[in-house]
Design brief:
Number of strands: 7
Shape: globular
Largest sheet: 7 strands, mixed
Distance between the termini: 49 Å
Structural class: alpha/beta
Radius of gyration: 17 Å
Order of helices and strands: HEHEHEHEHEHEHHEHH
Strand order of the largest sheet: 3-2-1-4-6-5-7
């Protein structure tokens, strides 16, 4: 039988969406999430385009579902996630989901990533992108980051750089995220592992477009993350 999130569980779920220059892509994402009955913390990370006004337009349609936090300047996806985590703790939901705001993730997968949390099988979930659907440059970079995550953080996962993840409120209170950029993906996994938080991997659908392929972890970004990992180990 296909799992369906109950309305009471939707009311106890907040979705965190970092947003940087997403004026042409974010509206269908956040409005579908709102229509499904979930609440959102959207972190406008110092966008230089019309992203903030676009989000506000959607907020006027769904005032009970959309909460906006803004950085004056762009501070990176890691800091945006920290802002989102800090904000969502104020609302005290049972479940927290983090996903991209550019349309790369399928909103319908919210059911899939929440299922292990709601049924009690896990306290954290990592959304895994199928390798066959991933562009070659992303595939190589992700393989590199999976190896580095295994070496530096002693945890083996199928997709260390996924931007689609979920966690219970109790587990979120145990972890400590400090990364500024894309290192946050590996750091999240490290914190889950170090705090012995039971987690599951769930296969998700990924929608690649020229815009979404231009962002995320490529080989150059992977090398930058490696440098950050080394610095963290030295401290």
């Amino acid at each position: 039988m296909e799992f369906k999130v109950r309305n009471e569980d939707k009311k106890d779920t907040y979705v965190i969406l970092p947003a940087y220059n997403e004026e042409t892509r974010i509206t269908p994402v956040i409005e579908k999430i709102a229509e499904m009955g979930y609440k959102m913390v959207i972190v406008n990370d110092g966008s230089s385009d019309n992203t903030l006004n676009v989000i506000r337009e959607s907020q006027r349609k769904y005032p009970d579902n959309i909460f906006i936090y803004s950085h004056i300047v762009n501070r990176g996806v890691g800091v945006a996630m920290q802002t989102g985590f800090d904000a969502v703790l104020k609302y005290n939901p049972k479940y927290i989901v983090n996903m991209d705001s550019d349309g790369q993730h399928d909103v319908d997968d919210l059911e899939n990533v929440l299922e292990p949390l709601i049924t009690g099988r896990a306290q954290a979930v990592i959304g895994v992108r199928p390798l066959k659907d991933m562009p070659l440059s992303r595939n190589i970079a992700n393989a590199i980051m999976n190896i580095l995550t295994r070496i530096f953080y002693k945890v083996d996962v199928s997709d260390s750089q996924t931007g689609f993840r979920a966690i219970t409120i109790d587990a979120l209170r145990k972890i400590n995220i400090n990364a500024r950029g894309y290192l946050i993906s590996s750091e999240f996994i490290r914190e889950v592992n170090d705090n012995e938080i039971p987690f599951e991997e769930v296969v998700i659908k990924t929608i690649y477009t020229p815009e979404t392929q231009a962002k995320g972890t490529n080989v150059i970004v992977a090398l930058k993350i490696l440098i950050q990992m080394i610095k963290h180990q030295i401290r």
